[in-house]
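Lab channel / #folding
Pinned by the channel admin:
"Please post every new chain as: sequence first, then the structure tokens as a reply. Keep commentary short and put observations after the output so the thread stays searchable."

First post following the new format, from NK:
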Amino acid sequence: MRPIIVALLSLLLFAAPATAGEVVIAPPGPDSVCPVCGMFVAKYPEWVAAVVFKDGHAHYFDGAKDLFKFLRDLGRYDPGHEAADIAIVAVTDYYGVRTIDARSAFFVVGSDTLGPMGHELVPLASKADADEFMADHKGKRILTFDQVGAELLKSLDRGGVK
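Reply from TO:
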């Protein structure tokens, strides 16, 4: 009986696609402004990203690109908080238009899909969705949260990833 259980568990673990879990956050208000670029965030619900701190304070962004800029220079954009104070980092899944955990999302760069601020990191909940998006929208690369660096963010602002 034990070998059967082990086989079934192995099948479930290896067959289940890795996906970013859905997170529940309050939506941005009509006056919510991106702390990085100053745009009104609620106008772009399909691109909303957010950082929620343990004290309940939240910042909303008009795309993942500005979210990453914020995280890379937290002291500049929110000197009252530190990285250790962050409870939730969320992005909006492109296909599902639902808020997902950014730390386990997949991001496509270099595609023909533009966000509110131009070239953008397109968040997707699963690797399979990212692969599909790459094929459908001429994406260049799929990245995980930890692979998004400062140089990539600068290249997006300069006209995209080559």
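NK: The longest helix spans residues 2-15.
TO: also worth noting, The two ends are 54 Å apart (CA to CA).
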